Amino acid sequence: MTLLPDPWWPVAVIAVIVAGDAAMTFRPPAFIAACLDGVGLPRDWWWVLAVVKVTAVAGLIAGFWIPGVGLAAMAGLVVYFLTAAGAHLRAGYTGRDFWLNCLGMLALTVLVLIWCFLV
What we know:
By secondary structure, the chain is mostly helical.
């Protein structure tokens, strides 16, 4: 196990993806709004998702220099996407958004966590 990402670039790729996702969450396009409505997340809570994602990106970036911070941010993203998957399953919203976006990001974050921090 390492407290700094090795290799670093998969963590950087995740940070860019989550930053883009966070930017879209502040003013969600129709497909994101439909997903959030589909899982039953109240509209007045949507801003919380953007804050969580921005915080995760900041942690991933800080984790390049501060031991353990990137590991914690990556673990937090895994928990975030596990929770999202649970929300999709609970709501019965298991279409394309669930399989591609939610489970795809869950798999990607788990792989990067294992590859860059645990192996």
